[in-house]
Amino acid sequence: MSKVIVDISMSLDGFVNASNVRAEEPMGDGGLVLHEWAFDGDDRDREVLGGGGAGVGAIITGRRTYDLSVPWWGADGPSGPARVPVFVVTHTAPADVVEGGVYTFVTAGPEHALREAATAADGRDMCVMGGADLIQQYLRAGLVDEISIHLVPVLLHHGTRLFEHIGDDHIRLVPGEPVGTAKAVHLRFRVLTR
């Protein structure tokens, strides 16, 4: 059975980007430190990165993440040559879309995007990879099966916190085995209350 997995890098103080996010600094001032593990990490970091994407049949992201990331992702999306379909939750589709891209713009909301992603995933997992607001919506709606956090040893002090605005009820989690490297501690949790 397919799962809905949140997968994101986060600072020790809970931020998924630094402050002052803009086109030329999509992770905010100094925020790229959150992704160093994926590009400059060791073999264990690469194993986590490769293993996390292996069973993914569809990706769900928000419009702001798309707008900030598409210059780097290009037509192939965040999965590169694997060309995993990406469903972008947005109020309006952009006028200028990457030609031949893997992107589908969903204006009917996060739950509708999840249904479309499930069809495209064809039994494989779906990965919700940002931004924080979209992840919070999925958590509030009880639609997340697993949370994968790449906890980076840095205190950003400012930016966008991941676990704000997720509702008033406790969300119980079961931890998996952590993988620690010099660049990140990779944590995986199964969501109990859904």
From TrEMBL:
<feature type="domain" description="Bacterial bifunctional deaminase-reductase C-terminal">
    <location>
        <begin position="3"/>
        <end position="172"/>
    </location>
</feature>
<protein>
    <submittedName>
        <fullName>Dihydrofolate reductase</fullName>
    </submittedName>
</protein>
<dbReference type="GO" id="GO:0009231">
    <property type="term" value="P:riboflavin biosynthetic process"/>
</dbReference>
<dbReference type="Pfam" id="PF01872">
    <property type="entry name" value="RibD_C"/>
</dbReference>
<dbReference type="InterPro" id="IPR002734">
    <property type="entry name" value="RibDG_C"/>
</dbReference>
<dbReference type="GO" id="GO:0008703">
    <property type="term" value="F:5-amino-6-(5-phosphoribosylamino)uracil reductase activity"/>
</dbReference>
<dbReference type="InterPro" id="IPR050765">
    <property type="entry name" value="Riboflavin_Biosynth_HTPR"/>
</dbReference>
<dbReference type="InterPro" id="IPR024072">
    <property type="entry name" value="DHFR-like_dom_sf"/>
</dbReference>
